Amino acid sequence: xxxxxxxxxxxxxxxxxxxxxxxxxxxxxxxxxxxxxxxxxxxxxxxxxxxxxxxxxxxxxxxxxxxxxxxxxxxxxxxxxxxxxxxxxxxxxxxxxxxxxxxxxxxxxxxxxxxxxxxxxxxxxxxxxxxxxxxxxxxxxxxxxxxxxxxxxxxxxxxxxxxxxxxxxxxxxxxxxxxxxxxxxxxxxxxxxxxxxxxxxxxxxxxxxxxxxxxxxxxxxxxxxxxxxxxxxxxxxxxxxxxxxxxxxxxxxxxxxxxxxxxxxxxxxxxxxxxxxxxxxxxxxxxxxxxxxxxxxxxxxxxxxxxxxxxxx
Length: 313
What we know:
Layout: H1 2-11, E1 17-30, E2 37-40, E3 47-48, E4 53-57, H2 60-85, H3 89-121, H4 127-156, H5 160-186, E5 188-190, E6 195-199, E7 213-230, H6 231-234, E8 242-247, E9 254-261, E10 282-289, E11 301-306
Antiparallel strand pairs: 1-7, 1-11, 2-4, 3-6, 4-5, 6-7, 7-10, 8-9, 8-11, 9-10
């Protein structure tokens, strides 16, 4: 019994040791649109450089949408050019001709009304005829004023506010075309950083929903240990503190440094505990390995020993 107890105690981690797993920084590439995967360029576990193609999604729909917004942008640019050029000389000549015709009609209507006035006073024509002639003369004069205003508008050219609106419409259309062009580029999925392909959740021919991970990369120069620090040890663990990391399957330890430790517990909330139950709290910490093999796999069990701090703890 004594020998068994000694053996079990030897297997227990020491008070200054914590347990966890070996991890790499992960980069997830989500699906920008719900399109079918038409080409796969890598396999899981493959090393890739930054910018290397990973896969391609169906381009037809996005290319058509890009063509539509590009045509709309071109239409807006042509409309702006028309506003900046102002009215054509033929339009001004047409407006002058319409003014001349309106003036001639007004002169004719005025003359007819002038001839009917004395006849109306002598009661040789009906009063209604005189009234209709007066109304026709007034309407003809109004047509002359409208034609004069139309000619003046053309002669003064396009208003500056209209040109400004045209420029804003061009800017909006070009921005939409640029956004659609970026969406089209995202259909060619490339590696944002150098690393190793950890997972390809979807295969050739699959259609992933928007936002679903198309590829997961393991990136970085070295892995890190993700461990859970018990509450009694939390006060003695600080960012920048040196540590020794023992990876399961490797005899030699790796030197590391604490890069992060959470201030909130990962398990039972502190307000639900009191007294000795507080020892059940754990705090997530990450220890970067200074020198480690690039082929160390993620998920391996690790054991971490923290070095003493400046105050000797």
